[in-house]
Records
---
Amino acid sequence: MNFLIIGDIYSKSGRDVLEENINSIIEENNIDFIIANGENISHGKGINKNHYDFLKNLGINVITSGNHIFKVKETLEYIDSVKDLLRPANMNSYNKGIGTTQFDFKGKKIRVTNLMGKSFMEHVNNPYEVMDKILENDNSNIHIVDFHAEASAEKLAFAWNYDGKISALVGTHTHVQTADERILPKGTAFITDLGMTGPINSIIGANPEEVIFKEKTGLPTKFIPCENKGMLCGVIIKINELDKVEEIIRLQIK
Protein backbone atom coordinates (compact mmCIF):
# COMPACT_ATOMS: atom_id res chain seq x y z
CA MET A 1 0.00 0.00 0.00
CA ASN A 2 1.35 3.40 -0.98
CA PHE A 3 0.81 6.46 1.20
CA LEU A 4 1.21 10.07 0.06
CA ILE A 5 1.83 12.46 2.96
CA ILE A 6 1.81 16.16 2.12
CA GLY A 7 3.53 18.89 4.12
CA ASP A 8 1.86 22.04 5.48
CA ILE A 9 -0.37 23.47 2.74
CA TYR A 10 0.03 27.23 2.84
CA SER A 11 -2.69 29.56 1.52
CA LYS A 12 -3.63 29.97 -2.17
CA SER A 13 -0.21 29.11 -3.57
CA GLY A 14 -0.26 25.82 -1.69
CA ARG A 15 -3.79 25.03 -2.77
CA ASP A 16 -2.97 25.74 -6.39
CA VAL A 17 0.18 23.62 -6.60
CA LEU A 18 -1.60 20.78 -4.82
CA GLU A 19 -4.57 20.88 -7.16
CA GLU A 20 -2.31 21.02 -10.22
CA ASN A 21 -0.21 18.00 -9.27
CA ILE A 22 -2.11 15.62 -7.04
CA ASN A 23 -3.79 13.55 -9.76
CA SER A 24 -0.53 12.89 -11.59
CA ILE A 25 1.20 11.95 -8.31
CA ILE A 26 -1.58 9.50 -7.50
CA GLU A 27 -1.49 7.90 -10.96
CA GLU A 28 2.30 7.72 -11.34
CA ASN A 29 2.88 6.27 -7.87
CA ASN A 30 -0.23 4.10 -7.41
CA ILE A 31 -1.20 6.02 -4.29
CA ASP A 32 -3.80 4.34 -2.06
CA PHE A 33 -4.13 6.70 0.91
CA ILE A 34 -3.40 10.42 1.32
CA ILE A 35 -2.65 12.45 4.46
CA ALA A 36 -2.13 16.22 4.32
CA ASN A 37 -1.39 18.85 6.93
CA GLY A 38 -3.99 21.60 6.41
CA GLU A 39 -3.50 23.95 9.34
CA ASN A 40 -2.18 26.79 7.14
CA ILE A 41 -4.46 26.37 4.16
CA SER A 42 -6.78 29.33 4.86
CA HIS A 43 -4.80 32.53 4.28
CA GLY A 44 -1.81 31.07 6.12
CA LYS A 45 -3.50 30.19 9.43
CA GLY A 46 -6.31 27.76 10.08
CA ILE A 47 -8.71 25.76 7.93
CA ASN A 48 -12.21 26.96 7.12
CA LYS A 49 -15.00 24.64 5.97
CA ASN A 50 -14.61 25.61 2.33
CA HIS A 51 -10.96 24.59 2.34
CA TYR A 52 -11.72 21.40 4.28
CA ASP A 53 -14.17 20.53 1.49
CA PHE A 54 -11.53 21.48 -1.10
CA LEU A 55 -9.10 18.93 0.33
CA LYS A 56 -11.72 16.22 0.58
CA ASN A 57 -12.74 16.80 -3.04
CA LEU A 58 -9.12 16.25 -4.06
CA GLY A 59 -9.23 12.83 -2.39
CA ILE A 60 -7.39 13.56 0.87
CA ASN A 61 -8.27 10.81 3.34
CA VAL A 62 -7.07 12.48 6.56
CA ILE A 63 -6.20 16.11 7.30
CA THR A 64 -3.78 16.77 10.15
CA SER A 65 -2.97 20.10 11.77
CA GLY A 66 -1.04 21.79 14.57
CA ASN A 67 -0.94 24.94 16.67
CA HIS A 68 -2.97 26.97 14.13
CA ILE A 69 -5.91 24.57 13.90
CA PHE A 70 -8.36 26.90 15.66
CA LYS A 71 -7.18 30.22 14.20
CA VAL A 72 -10.35 30.27 12.08
CA LYS A 73 -13.34 30.30 14.44
CA GLU A 74 -15.47 28.46 11.89
CA THR A 75 -13.38 25.34 12.54
CA LEU A 76 -14.91 25.06 16.01
CA GLU A 77 -18.34 24.89 14.39
CA TYR A 78 -17.67 21.85 12.20
CA ILE A 79 -14.68 19.90 13.56
CA ASP A 80 -16.81 17.66 15.79
CA SER A 81 -18.96 16.65 12.82
CA VAL A 82 -16.02 15.15 10.89
CA LYS A 83 -13.65 12.35 11.82
CA ASP A 84 -10.96 13.00 9.25
CA LEU A 85 -9.76 16.43 10.42
CA LEU A 86 -7.42 16.04 13.39
CA ARG A 87 -6.17 18.49 15.97
CA PRO A 88 -3.12 17.52 18.07
CA ALA A 89 -4.17 14.80 20.51
CA ASN A 90 -2.12 16.34 23.32
CA MET A 91 -3.88 19.70 23.17
CA ASN A 92 -6.10 20.67 26.11
CA SER A 93 -8.67 17.89 26.44
CA TYR A 94 -11.47 20.46 26.62
CA ASN A 95 -10.79 21.46 23.01
CA LYS A 96 -13.12 20.22 20.33
CA GLY A 97 -12.06 17.61 17.82
CA ILE A 98 -10.07 14.39 17.98
CA GLY A 99 -6.35 13.71 17.71
CA THR A 100 -6.34 10.17 16.38
CA THR A 101 -8.62 8.29 14.00
CA GLN A 102 -8.78 4.81 12.50
CA PHE A 103 -10.23 3.52 9.24
CA ASP A 104 -10.93 0.11 7.76
CA PHE A 105 -9.37 0.54 4.33
CA LYS A 106 -8.65 -2.10 1.70
CA GLY A 107 -8.58 -4.85 4.28
CA LYS A 108 -6.29 -2.97 6.67
CA LYS A 109 -6.88 -0.97 9.83
CA ILE A 110 -5.14 2.37 9.27
CA ARG A 111 -4.63 4.77 12.17
CA VAL A 112 -3.49 8.38 11.82
CA THR A 113 -2.43 10.32 14.91
CA ASN A 114 -1.61 14.03 15.25
CA LEU A 115 0.58 15.29 18.10
CA MET A 116 2.38 18.53 18.92
CA GLY A 117 5.81 19.11 20.41
CA LYS A 118 6.52 21.09 23.57
CA SER A 119 9.78 22.91 22.75
CA PHE A 120 9.28 26.55 21.67
CA MET A 121 5.55 25.91 21.16
CA GLU A 122 2.29 26.79 22.89
CA HIS A 123 1.58 24.71 26.00
CA VAL A 124 0.41 21.17 25.33
CA ASN A 125 0.29 18.00 27.40
CA ASN A 126 3.17 15.53 27.41
CA PRO A 127 3.06 13.84 23.97
CA TYR A 128 4.62 10.63 25.31
CA GLU A 129 1.86 10.16 27.90
CA VAL A 130 -0.84 10.78 25.29
CA MET A 131 0.81 8.53 22.72
CA ASP A 132 1.22 5.69 25.22
CA LYS A 133 -2.51 5.83 25.99
CA ILE A 134 -3.36 5.74 22.28
CA LEU A 135 -1.14 2.69 21.77
CA GLU A 136 -2.73 0.84 24.70
CA ASN A 137 -5.96 0.47 22.72
CA ASP A 138 -4.52 0.42 19.21
CA ASN A 139 -5.20 -2.58 16.99
CA SER A 140 -4.21 -0.99 13.70
CA ASN A 141 -2.10 -2.65 11.03
CA ILE A 142 -0.61 0.66 9.92
CA HIS A 143 -0.12 3.70 12.17
CA ILE A 144 1.16 7.02 10.84
CA VAL A 145 1.93 9.97 13.13
CA ASP A 146 2.17 13.66 12.19
CA PHE A 147 4.36 15.20 14.90
CA HIS A 148 3.96 18.98 14.65
CA ALA A 149 7.00 20.44 16.38
CA GLU A 150 9.67 23.12 16.21
CA ALA A 151 12.77 21.29 17.42
CA SER A 152 14.31 18.66 15.16
CA ALA A 153 15.81 16.76 18.13
CA GLU A 154 12.39 16.52 19.77
CA LYS A 155 10.93 14.97 16.63
CA LEU A 156 13.76 12.49 16.29
CA ALA A 157 13.70 11.49 19.96
CA PHE A 158 9.97 10.85 19.74
CA ALA A 159 10.42 8.74 16.62
CA TRP A 160 13.20 6.66 18.18
CA ASN A 161 11.09 6.05 21.28
CA TYR A 162 8.30 4.57 19.14
CA ASP A 163 10.49 2.87 16.54
CA GLY A 164 8.90 -0.46 15.70
CA LYS A 165 5.64 0.49 17.43
CA ILE A 166 4.33 2.73 14.63
CA SER A 167 4.70 2.60 10.86
CA ALA A 168 5.88 6.16 10.31
CA LEU A 169 6.49 9.47 12.02
CA VAL A 170 6.61 12.57 9.83
CA GLY A 171 7.48 15.98 11.20
CA THR A 172 5.63 19.16 10.26
CA HIS A 173 5.57 22.84 11.31
CA THR A 174 8.95 24.32 10.29
CA HIS A 175 7.92 24.61 6.60
CA VAL A 176 11.46 23.62 5.55
CA GLN A 177 11.84 20.15 4.09
CA THR A 178 14.68 18.09 5.55
CA ALA A 179 16.81 15.62 3.60
CA ASP A 180 16.97 12.95 6.30
CA GLU A 181 14.21 10.56 5.26
CA ARG A 182 15.04 7.05 6.47
CA ILE A 183 13.76 3.83 7.98
CA LEU A 184 14.81 3.52 11.62
CA PRO A 185 16.39 0.24 12.86
CA LYS A 186 13.12 -1.36 14.02
CA GLY A 187 11.20 -0.41 10.88
CA THR A 188 9.57 3.00 11.44
CA ALA A 189 9.80 5.47 8.55
CA PHE A 190 10.93 8.96 9.57
CA ILE A 191 11.56 12.45 8.23
CA THR A 192 12.22 15.46 10.45
CA ASP A 193 9.99 17.76 8.37
CA LEU A 194 7.89 17.19 5.29
CA GLY A 195 8.32 20.81 4.24
CA MET A 196 5.77 23.34 3.04
CA THR A 197 3.41 23.01 0.12
CA GLY A 198 3.29 26.69 -0.72
CA PRO A 199 5.05 29.67 -2.27
CA ILE A 200 8.71 29.19 -3.15
CA ASN A 201 9.87 32.80 -2.97
CA SER A 202 8.67 33.49 0.55
CA ILE A 203 9.75 33.23 4.17
CA ILE A 204 7.99 30.05 5.26
CA GLY A 205 4.95 31.18 3.26
CA ALA A 206 4.79 34.87 4.09
CA ASN A 207 5.92 37.93 2.14
CA PRO A 208 9.58 38.61 2.96
CA GLU A 209 8.94 42.35 3.43
CA GLU A 210 6.77 42.01 6.53
CA VAL A 211 8.93 39.31 8.08
CA ILE A 212 12.11 41.36 7.59
CA PHE A 213 10.44 44.45 9.04
CA LYS A 214 9.49 42.55 12.19
CA GLU A 215 12.96 41.02 12.51
CA LYS A 216 14.64 44.41 12.13
CA THR A 217 12.35 46.51 14.32
CA GLY A 218 10.71 44.11 16.75
CA LEU A 219 7.39 45.82 16.05
CA PRO A 220 4.17 43.80 15.69
CA THR A 221 3.48 43.09 12.04
CA LYS A 222 0.78 41.20 10.19
CA PHE A 223 2.30 38.60 7.91
CA ILE A 224 0.73 38.42 4.45
CA PRO A 225 0.87 35.15 2.49
CA CYS A 226 2.88 35.16 -0.71
CA GLU A 227 0.99 34.15 -3.83
CA ASN A 228 3.86 33.33 -6.18
CA LYS A 229 4.66 29.95 -7.73
CA GLY A 230 4.25 27.07 -5.32
CA MET A 231 6.15 23.88 -4.56
CA LEU A 232 4.59 20.67 -3.27
CA CYS A 233 6.55 18.92 -0.53
CA GLY A 234 5.98 15.59 1.14
CA VAL A 235 6.84 11.91 1.07
CA ILE A 236 5.61 8.65 -0.36
CA ILE A 237 5.78 5.70 2.02
CA LYS A 238 5.49 2.15 0.66
CA ILE A 239 4.21 -0.52 3.04
CA ASN A 240 4.03 -4.18 2.02
CA GLU A 241 1.37 -6.81 2.64
CA LEU A 242 3.08 -7.78 5.89
CA ASP A 243 2.62 -4.18 7.11
CA LYS A 244 6.36 -3.50 6.94
CA VAL A 245 7.72 -0.24 5.57
CA GLU A 246 9.75 -0.88 2.42
CA GLU A 247 10.63 2.63 1.33
CA ILE A 248 10.23 6.34 2.10
CA ILE A 249 10.66 8.70 -0.86
CA ARG A 250 10.96 12.47 -0.48
CA LEU A 251 8.96 14.66 -2.88
CA GLN A 252 9.56 18.18 -4.17
CA ILE A 253 7.40 19.19 -7.12
CA LYS A 254 7.39 22.72 -8.58
---
Amino acid sequence: MRQFDFSPLYRSTVGFDRLFSALDQVSGFDGSAQTYPPYNIERTSENAYRVSVAVAGFSDRDIAIEVKENTLTIRGEKAEDKAEKKGEVLHQGIAARAFERRFQLADHVQVTGASLENGLLHVDLVREIPEAKKPRLIPINASAPKQVEAKAAA
Protein backbone atom coordinates (compact mmCIF):
# COMPACT_ATOMS: atom_id res chain seq x y z
CA MET A 1 0.00 0.00 0.00
CA ARG A 2 1.30 3.49 -0.82
CA GLN A 3 2.07 6.02 1.89
CA PHE A 4 1.25 9.66 1.18
CA ASP A 5 3.11 12.36 3.08
CA PHE A 6 0.50 14.95 4.12
CA SER A 7 2.88 16.65 6.56
CA PRO A 8 3.82 19.53 4.22
CA LEU A 9 0.14 20.37 3.84
CA TYR A 10 -0.53 19.88 7.55
CA ARG A 11 2.33 22.15 8.57
CA SER A 12 1.31 25.06 6.36
CA THR A 13 -2.46 25.20 6.80
CA VAL A 14 -4.64 26.52 9.57
CA GLY A 15 -8.24 25.54 10.06
CA PHE A 16 -8.09 22.28 8.10
CA ASP A 17 -6.92 20.30 11.13
CA ARG A 18 -9.91 17.92 11.18
CA LEU A 19 -9.35 16.96 7.55
CA PHE A 20 -5.63 16.35 7.96
CA SER A 21 -6.09 14.52 11.25
CA ALA A 22 -8.50 12.18 9.49
CA LEU A 23 -6.10 11.71 6.57
CA ASP A 24 -3.21 11.02 8.97
CA GLN A 25 -5.30 8.45 10.83
CA VAL A 26 -6.36 6.72 7.64
CA SER A 27 -2.84 6.63 6.23
CA GLY A 28 -1.22 5.80 9.57
CA PHE A 29 1.50 8.34 8.87
CA ASP A 30 2.85 10.87 11.34
CA GLY A 31 5.97 12.60 10.07
CA SER A 32 7.38 16.03 10.65
CA ALA A 33 10.20 18.05 9.18
CA GLN A 34 11.43 21.36 10.44
CA THR A 35 12.54 24.27 8.32
CA TYR A 36 13.76 27.77 9.08
CA PRO A 37 12.34 29.44 11.06
CA PRO A 38 10.77 26.85 13.34
CA TYR A 39 7.12 27.41 14.24
CA ASN A 40 4.15 25.95 16.09
CA ILE A 41 0.47 25.93 15.18
CA GLU A 42 -1.75 25.74 18.25
CA ARG A 43 -5.48 25.52 18.76
CA THR A 44 -6.34 27.85 21.63
CA SER A 45 -10.10 27.18 21.56
CA GLU A 46 -12.63 25.55 19.26
CA ASN A 47 -12.45 28.36 16.67
CA ALA A 48 -9.20 30.11 17.62
CA TYR A 49 -5.64 29.33 16.59
CA ARG A 50 -2.16 30.73 17.19
CA VAL A 51 0.85 30.49 14.91
CA SER A 52 4.10 31.01 16.84
CA VAL A 53 7.29 31.57 14.85
CA ALA A 54 10.78 31.63 16.42
CA VAL A 55 12.32 34.88 15.21
CA ALA A 56 15.23 35.38 17.61
CA GLY A 57 17.26 38.44 16.70
CA PHE A 58 14.48 40.09 14.66
CA SER A 59 12.61 43.19 15.80
CA ASP A 60 9.09 44.22 14.87
CA ARG A 61 10.58 46.53 12.19
CA ASP A 62 12.27 43.53 10.52
CA ILE A 63 9.07 41.47 10.18
CA ALA A 64 6.11 41.92 7.81
CA ILE A 65 2.81 40.03 8.11
CA GLU A 66 0.42 39.97 5.16
CA VAL A 67 -2.91 38.23 4.55
CA LYS A 68 -4.12 37.89 0.98
CA GLU A 69 -6.64 35.46 -0.49
CA ASN A 70 -6.55 32.89 2.35
CA THR A 71 -2.75 33.00 2.54
CA LEU A 72 -0.90 34.27 5.61
CA THR A 73 2.64 35.35 4.71
CA ILE A 74 5.28 36.17 7.32
CA ARG A 75 8.49 37.75 6.02
CA GLY A 76 11.60 38.61 7.96
CA GLU A 77 14.63 40.50 6.78
CA LYS A 78 17.25 41.76 9.18
CA ALA A 79 18.29 45.32 8.45
CA GLU A 80 22.05 45.82 8.71
CA ASP A 81 22.71 48.21 11.56
CA LYS A 82 26.38 49.03 12.02
CA ALA A 83 25.71 50.86 15.27
CA GLU A 84 24.37 47.58 16.69
CA LYS A 85 27.65 45.70 16.09
CA LYS A 86 30.05 46.18 18.96
CA GLY A 87 32.67 43.61 18.21
CA GLU A 88 33.85 40.79 16.02
CA VAL A 89 31.62 37.70 15.88
CA LEU A 90 33.67 34.58 16.63
CA HIS A 91 30.77 32.13 16.26
CA GLN A 92 27.32 32.83 14.83
CA GLY A 93 24.83 30.23 15.97
CA ILE A 94 21.76 32.48 15.86
CA ALA A 95 20.54 32.58 12.28
CA ALA A 96 19.48 36.01 11.11
CA ARG A 97 18.94 35.23 7.46
CA ALA A 98 15.91 36.47 5.59
CA PHE A 99 12.88 34.18 5.51
CA GLU A 100 9.39 33.92 4.11
CA ARG A 101 6.86 31.51 5.54
CA ARG A 102 3.39 30.98 4.02
CA PHE A 103 0.36 29.37 5.65
CA GLN A 104 -2.83 28.49 3.79
CA LEU A 105 -5.86 29.59 5.80
CA ALA A 106 -9.21 27.82 5.66
CA ASP A 107 -12.28 29.73 4.57
CA HIS A 108 -13.52 32.24 7.15
CA VAL A 109 -10.24 32.26 9.15
CA GLN A 110 -9.24 35.83 10.01
CA VAL A 111 -6.06 37.24 11.58
CA THR A 112 -6.99 39.06 14.78
CA GLY A 113 -3.59 40.26 15.94
CA ALA A 114 0.14 39.68 16.27
CA SER A 115 2.67 40.18 19.05
CA LEU A 116 6.42 39.77 19.40
CA GLU A 117 7.70 38.69 22.79
CA ASN A 118 10.82 36.86 23.94
CA GLY A 119 11.93 36.07 20.38
CA LEU A 120 8.58 34.51 19.41
CA LEU A 121 6.17 36.06 16.94
CA HIS A 122 2.59 35.10 17.83
CA VAL A 123 -0.11 35.51 15.18
CA ASP A 124 -3.65 34.98 16.50
CA LEU A 125 -6.33 33.64 14.18
CA VAL A 126 -10.04 33.01 14.59
CA ARG A 127 -12.52 31.12 12.43
CA GLU A 128 -15.68 33.22 12.08
CA ILE A 129 -18.37 31.34 10.20
CA PRO A 130 -21.05 33.67 8.73
CA GLU A 131 -24.61 33.18 9.96
CA ALA A 132 -25.69 32.04 6.49
CA LYS A 133 -23.16 29.15 6.61
CA LYS A 134 -23.90 28.03 10.18
CA PRO A 135 -26.17 25.04 10.71
CA ARG A 136 -29.70 25.98 11.67
CA LEU A 137 -32.69 24.12 12.91
CA ILE A 138 -35.76 24.09 10.73
CA PRO A 139 -39.00 24.17 12.73
CA ILE A 140 -41.60 21.62 11.81
CA ASN A 141 -45.06 23.07 11.44
CA ALA A 142 -47.37 20.49 12.87
CA SER A 143 -51.03 21.32 12.43
CA ALA A 144 -53.34 20.75 15.33
CA PRO A 145 -55.07 17.40 15.21
CA LYS A 146 -58.49 17.64 13.62
CA GLN A 147 -61.37 16.37 15.61
CA VAL A 148 -63.92 14.54 13.59
CA GLU A 149 -67.40 14.58 15.04
CA ALA A 150 -69.29 11.42 14.50
CA LYS A 151 -72.97 11.84 13.79
CA ALA A 152 -75.23 9.44 15.49
CA ALA A 153 -77.19 7.31 13.09
CA ALA A 154 -80.90 7.88 13.43
---
Amino acid sequence: MMKVEHIGIAVKTFDTSIPLYEKLLNTTCYKTETVASERVNTAFFRQGDTKIELLESTDPDGVIAKFIEKKGEGIHHIAFEVADIHAEMERLRSEGFVLLNESPKKGADNKLICFVHPKNTNGVLVEICQEISG
Protein backbone atom coordinates (compact mmCIF):
# COMPACT_ATOMS: atom_id res chain seq x y z
CA MET A 1 0.00 0.00 0.00
CA MET A 2 1.49 3.26 -1.14
CA LYS A 3 -0.41 5.96 0.79
CA VAL A 4 -3.75 6.99 2.21
CA GLU A 5 -5.68 7.92 -0.93
CA HIS A 6 -8.75 9.36 0.81
CA ILE A 7 -10.99 9.21 3.85
CA GLY A 8 -14.66 8.52 3.14
CA ILE A 9 -17.28 10.27 5.28
CA ALA A 10 -20.97 9.30 5.21
CA VAL A 11 -23.31 12.30 5.20
CA LYS A 12 -27.08 12.68 5.06
CA THR A 13 -27.14 15.43 2.46
CA PHE A 14 -24.74 17.38 0.31
CA ASP A 15 -26.91 20.49 0.72
CA THR A 16 -25.50 21.06 4.21
CA SER A 17 -22.36 18.92 4.14
CA ILE A 18 -20.55 20.40 1.13
CA PRO A 19 -20.74 23.98 2.49
CA LEU A 20 -19.71 22.71 5.93
CA TYR A 21 -16.59 20.95 4.61
CA GLU A 22 -15.73 23.87 2.33
CA LYS A 23 -15.64 26.10 5.41
CA LEU A 24 -13.90 23.53 7.59
CA LEU A 25 -11.18 22.68 5.07
CA ASN A 26 -10.98 26.20 3.61
CA THR A 27 -11.20 24.82 0.08
CA THR A 28 -13.90 24.17 -2.50
CA CYS A 29 -15.39 20.86 -3.52
CA TYR A 30 -13.54 20.08 -6.75
CA LYS A 31 -15.68 17.22 -8.01
CA THR A 32 -19.03 15.50 -7.52
CA GLU A 33 -19.92 12.19 -9.10
CA THR A 34 -22.67 9.58 -8.93
CA VAL A 35 -21.64 5.94 -8.65
CA ALA A 36 -24.86 4.20 -9.65
CA SER A 37 -23.57 0.70 -8.83
CA GLU A 38 -22.99 1.75 -5.22
CA ARG A 39 -26.15 3.89 -5.03
CA VAL A 40 -24.13 6.87 -3.84
CA ASN A 41 -23.18 10.42 -4.74
CA THR A 42 -19.61 11.45 -3.98
CA ALA A 43 -18.05 14.87 -3.39
CA PHE A 44 -14.29 15.37 -3.21
CA PHE A 45 -12.09 17.88 -1.40
CA ARG A 46 -8.30 18.13 -1.49
CA GLN A 47 -5.85 19.64 0.97
CA GLY A 48 -2.29 18.99 -0.18
CA ASP A 49 -1.98 15.25 -0.80
CA THR A 50 -5.00 14.45 1.36
CA LYS A 51 -8.46 13.87 -0.13
CA ILE A 52 -11.79 13.72 1.67
CA GLU A 53 -14.71 11.97 -0.02
CA LEU A 54 -18.25 12.72 1.16
CA LEU A 55 -20.74 9.92 0.50
CA GLU A 56 -24.47 10.66 0.14
CA SER A 57 -26.90 7.80 -0.44
CA THR A 58 -29.11 7.93 -3.53
CA ASP A 59 -31.31 5.14 -2.17
CA PRO A 60 -32.94 4.80 1.26
CA ASP A 61 -31.95 1.10 1.19
CA GLY A 62 -28.37 1.80 0.05
CA VAL A 63 -25.25 0.94 2.04
CA ILE A 64 -24.58 4.55 3.06
CA ALA A 65 -28.19 5.14 4.16
CA LYS A 66 -28.05 1.98 6.28
CA PHE A 67 -24.67 3.01 7.72
CA ILE A 68 -26.04 6.42 8.76
CA GLU A 69 -29.19 4.82 10.19
CA LYS A 70 -27.07 2.48 12.33
CA LYS A 71 -24.07 4.66 13.24
CA GLY A 72 -24.94 8.23 12.25
CA GLU A 73 -22.95 10.49 9.98
CA GLY A 74 -19.20 10.14 10.21
CA ILE A 75 -16.13 8.31 8.97
CA HIS A 76 -17.16 5.42 6.76
CA HIS A 77 -13.84 4.12 5.39
CA ILE A 78 -10.18 4.78 4.79
CA ALA A 79 -8.79 4.14 1.31
CA PHE A 80 -5.22 3.18 0.46
CA GLU A 81 -3.72 3.58 -2.99
CA VAL A 82 -2.04 0.50 -4.44
CA ALA A 83 0.07 0.05 -7.57
CA ASP A 84 -1.55 -3.24 -8.64
CA ILE A 85 -4.99 -3.90 -7.16
CA HIS A 86 -5.12 -7.50 -8.44
CA ALA A 87 -1.79 -8.37 -6.80
CA GLU A 88 -2.78 -6.58 -3.59
CA MET A 89 -6.11 -8.43 -3.44
CA GLU A 90 -4.26 -11.73 -3.83
CA ARG A 91 -1.76 -10.75 -1.13
CA LEU A 92 -4.55 -9.78 1.28
CA ARG A 93 -6.41 -13.06 0.63
CA SER A 94 -3.20 -15.02 1.25
CA GLU A 95 -2.81 -13.17 4.57
CA GLY A 96 -6.31 -14.34 5.59
CA PHE A 97 -8.30 -11.16 4.96
CA VAL A 98 -11.86 -11.44 3.68
CA LEU A 99 -12.54 -9.19 0.70
CA LEU A 100 -16.02 -7.84 0.02
CA ASN A 101 -15.41 -8.00 -3.74
CA GLU A 102 -14.30 -11.00 -5.79
CA SER A 103 -12.71 -8.70 -8.34
CA PRO A 104 -12.05 -4.95 -8.49
CA LYS A 105 -14.96 -2.75 -9.48
CA LYS A 106 -15.21 0.76 -10.89
CA GLY A 107 -15.48 3.37 -8.16
CA ALA A 108 -15.52 7.14 -8.04
CA ASP A 109 -12.67 9.41 -9.11
CA ASN A 110 -11.43 7.11 -11.92
CA LYS A 111 -10.47 4.27 -9.57
CA LEU A 112 -10.72 0.50 -9.42
CA ILE A 113 -11.72 -0.41 -5.87
CA CYS A 114 -12.07 -3.30 -3.46
CA PHE A 115 -13.11 -3.34 0.19
CA VAL A 116 -11.66 -5.44 3.01
CA HIS A 117 -14.23 -6.78 5.48
CA PRO A 118 -14.12 -4.76 8.72
CA LYS A 119 -14.28 -7.91 10.83
CA ASN A 120 -10.65 -8.50 9.79
CA THR A 121 -9.48 -4.93 10.46
CA ASN A 122 -10.69 -4.22 14.00
CA GLY A 123 -13.95 -2.71 12.74
CA VAL A 124 -12.43 -0.33 10.18
CA LEU A 125 -13.73 -0.56 6.62
CA VAL A 126 -10.63 -0.45 4.41
CA GLU A 127 -10.74 0.26 0.69
CA ILE A 128 -7.87 -0.36 -1.66
CA CYS A 129 -7.86 1.57 -4.91
CA GLN A 130 -5.86 1.92 -8.09
CA GLU A 131 -6.02 4.70 -10.67
CA ILE A 132 -7.53 3.50 -13.95
CA SER A 133 -4.93 4.14 -16.62
CA GLY A 134 -5.62 5.04 -20.19
